[in-house]
Amino acid sequence: MSSPVEFLELLAREAATVEFEGPLVAARAAGLPPDRLAELEQAKSVALRVRALLERRRRRESELSGLYDTVSDLAGLRDLDDVLRAIVHRARHLLGADVAYMTLNDDERGDTYMRVTDGSVSARFQRLRLPMGAGLGGLVAQSGAPYVTANYGEDARFHHTGEIDAGVGEEGLVAILGVPLRLGSTSIGVLYAANRSARPFVREEVALLVSLAAHAAVAIDTARLLTETRSALAELSAANTTIRAHSSSVERAAAAHDRMTALVLRGGGVEDVAAAVTEVLGGALLALDAEGRLLARVGEIDEPDRADIVEAVAASRTEGRSVRRGPLWYAAVVAGAENLGALVLRPDDELVDADQRILERAALVTALLLLFRRTVAEAEGRVRGELLDDLIARPLRDTDALRSRARRLGVDLDAPHVLVAVGDDAIAATGSARQRVLSWATTYASARGGLAAARDGRVVLMLPGLDAGGSARAVARDLSRVTGRPVTAGASGPSNTPAALAGTFQEADRCLTALGALGRAGQGASTVELGFVGLLLGTVGDRGEKDVTEFLGATVGPVLDYDARRGTALVKTLEAYFGVGGSLARAAEQLHVHVNTVTQRLERVGQLLGVDWQRPERALEVQLALRLHRLRAPAN
Question: Which of 41, 109, 328, 367 is the most exposed place for a label (fewest CB within 10 A)?
């Protein structure tokens, strides 16, 4: 028999709603009176209300448990992106929604933008930006109050825009619930739950999402503060590292300054400066002079291309600082407007500002050392030049005192020396060019244990050795490279006594004049190589080469022209003929031709020069002319 107790049993085993109709059906079938049926109907109604209450409490318990789990999860997260993803995922799970998403306010642009989604499939929806007051989300962000719609597309309460409606439509959303994310009185964004079918969100779901949003806002703010704290700590750590590095670099700079100051005071050189820089900064370094020549090298480093050096040094001078080109740092070595060279550093590590200052200070110290070295060299050059000037002056006085002065300079006047006179073609009109040539000559002679001086418009070098011609050619070649123009050098000697040096200089000077007369500008030779012609031409005066040309033309000009036009060997035959004392047979033997050939050639000479060309006075002139012609074009 059916009784109210059966409804209690159904409640006890959590039966489905439809099962509560069973006792009434059985009672009607049993034919119970109406009063009993009414009692059972009332008992069923109470039982269903109790069941609904229990169901709501179970759901509320589940929601509270989920909310508690969410808060616990959020408390353990530290990264802001992780926090946002966890909030949206848990909102979707707790409300059983198809999609959950979050927008955050953009204070700079004055709107709200999609920050993170869960369950979304539309890229357009995920990129939405909502103006304040537009759409459901824009209205929630602006008002700070929850809004819900069972069918967004048909809800006229919201300001619809084409962009928002298109994104919502592409995602397929119909029912949407949005609640604000609030920190105190400030709204920072909106948390949403949405379904792709029309259904209302009940008050409990709204309250649940509001509670989740409240915890979420706190978690977001906590994560933001933690991120800002981490950033601040990172910045402090970086600042501390920078301060330590700066302090270390300042200490290095002070140590380098003290060390380079000590180098200058104790007379150190460029090599010592280069070593000091690399010990402080590490790496390898080159010190170059103004011409790009190596002054010092420390460590393994290749010399850059000359064009790269010129460009980098010019940039360093313009900027007044060291400059970087690839892995290399360049610091110009300058004194005022004068370029003295460069320091080229390849550091092991990156250079900070203080390290660059060390390199630049080293360049300044290098400039001081080079200027000091130049001053010392110039002073020594003046002393050496004055000694040479006294040695080649006439009359020579107090040779013992001269020997003593020479010994102090490391020169032995009783050893063989040659004197080389450099022509005016090496010296431009400006005084600076003349000084440059004299400075080069002083350095050149000093490096070889000799002397140099300016004398009577010439630059004179006294060099140890026996080969006057070789010395003249070496001076002409090397000085031509320095000046960029041909240089003529005449030499004489060797001389073994101080007393003979003045005469040796006069011979070297005459040899220089003879070279000019012979048209051999830009070459070097000695008086021995020119022979008697040199003695003759050494006194030709200002006419020089013009006199020689006229003499050759008047004496053997027809023969020279004939050979030039026809490719004959009349000049060679004449030289051989005079060289063997006028013997036809010996001349033929020397020329490797028949005697008749020699005879025929000499007859042709007679036709060109006249029948009296073999008379003694004419023959002497012809021989002298042939010698001059040979000297004007010496064999290589």
Answer: 109
